[in-house]
Design brief:
Strands 1, 2, 3, 4, 5, 6, 7, 8 and 9 form a nine-stranded mixed β-sheet that branches. 45% of the residues lie in helices and 18% in strands. Helix 10 packs parallel to helix 12. The chain starts with a strand and ends in a 6-residue tail after the last helix. It has two domains: 200 residues, Alpha-Beta Complex (Spore Coat Polysaccharide Biosynthesis Protein SpsA, Chain A); 109 residues, no CATH class. It contains 14 helices and nine strands.
Length: 329
């Protein structure tokens, strides 16, 4: 059995996918399998040329109607290694990625996930700079309430964790964030301080084409994580309600942030109320948005006077400064 299974769902068979596969085959840790999950393209491994003949490469198929969560779960089910590494089809794993991360998890049995620093590259592979990454387990715990602390393509974890917490279809545009939030309830995570992945920025990437849906699903995952912390039932009613107001597409970012700010306020979740109010102002500085954001923040402060200082800092400076967190440089 391989030591680590690399999962790469793909919806296009192109030069970026070939480069991603080659980056895995260049790893210093050779005891791996690379599972390509075909999301409806019908590609054969022969299309990758000599690269596709590597016996460590496996191809499984999902129909075009499958969700990203379905593809990830199919990859987890097929994985044979005790460790699973995630790599998007347009990103690159640097040569020591698997070696470093597997060693880190073997040395830290209490942790289920390890990430790493990623560097942005453009469509031609030119390095643009480093991506936001938090390193320490305590920073991961604090920041996950608001957003992922590291880039998805840098995560490696224990297969048992992925199997126990399947990706959920209702968060299909942010299944990774929902997974990290649920994983944090049963295990810890941290990130290695070195660049081990190149994250490609290009016009066709999912984060560019589906930003509205990604923000909507991330907000829902964030609110449901807070509900779980309070012992309350989860719901995805907010996504359905907002989609009904924007038939044929995702709601605007302002509509999404404003709705979740008001919903969190109504449920007495002050930190998410002011966080979403702050995010609303980051995308809309019109009079209506300002009135909504300030109204939510004022009511949250009044409802939780003992937390007023914390909530005011969160609204004014954001979660990093409020929690005293410092990203890797």
């Amino acid at each position: 059995m391989p030591l680590v299974s690399v999962l790469t769902p793909f919806h296009r068979a192109d030069a970026y996918l070939l480069a991603a596969v080659r980056s895995v085959q260049a790893q210093t840790l050779a005891d791996f399998e690379h599972i390509l999950v075909d999301h409806g393209t019908g590609m054969e491994l022969a299309a990758l040329g000599p690269t596709g003949a590597d016996p460590r490469l496996r191809l499984i198929r999902q129909p075009a109607a499958a969700t990203l969560a379905d593809c990830l779960n199919a990859g987890v089910a097929a994985a044979r290694g005790p460790f699973i590494a995630l790599l998007d089809r347009d990103d690159l794993a640097l040569p020591h990625r698997l070696e470093r991360q597997v060693a880190a998890l073997q040395a830290q049995p209490a942790f289920g996930l390890v990430a790493a620093v990623a560097a942005d590259i453009d469509g031609d592979g030119r390095v643009l700079g480093r991506r936001f990454t938090l390193l320490e387990p305590s920073a991961h715990r604090a920041f996950l309430r608001y957003a992922p602390p590291a880039t998805t393509s840098t995560y490696t974890g224990r297969r048992d964790l992925f199997a126990a917490l399947p990706y959920r279809r209702e968060y299909d545009f942010a299944p990774d964030y929902d997974f990290y939030l649920r994983a944090a309830e049963v295990t810890g995570s941290f990130a290695l301080p070195e660049v081990l992945v190149h994250y490609r920025i290009h016009a066709d990437q999912a984060t560019q084409r589906h930003q509205g849906e990604q923000v909507l699903h991330a907000c829902q995952a964030r609110l449901n994580a807070a509900r779980r912390r309070l012992g309350r039932a989860e719901s995805t009613a907010e996504v359905a309600r907002l989609r009904a107001l924007a038939p044929g597409g995702a709601p605007t970012l302002a509509a999404t942030y404003g709705h979740f700010a008001r919903q969190a306020l109504a449920e007495g979740i002050g930190d998410l109320a002011v966080y979403h109010a702050r995010k609303l102002l980051s995308v809309d500085r019109g009079p209506g948005a300002i009135a909504t954001a300030l109204g939510v923040a004022t009511r949250a402060l009044g409802a939780q006077p003992r937390q007023a200082g914390f909530l005011l800092r969160l609204f004014g400076t954001g979660p990093l400064r409020t929690h005293g967190l410092r990203p890797a440089t």
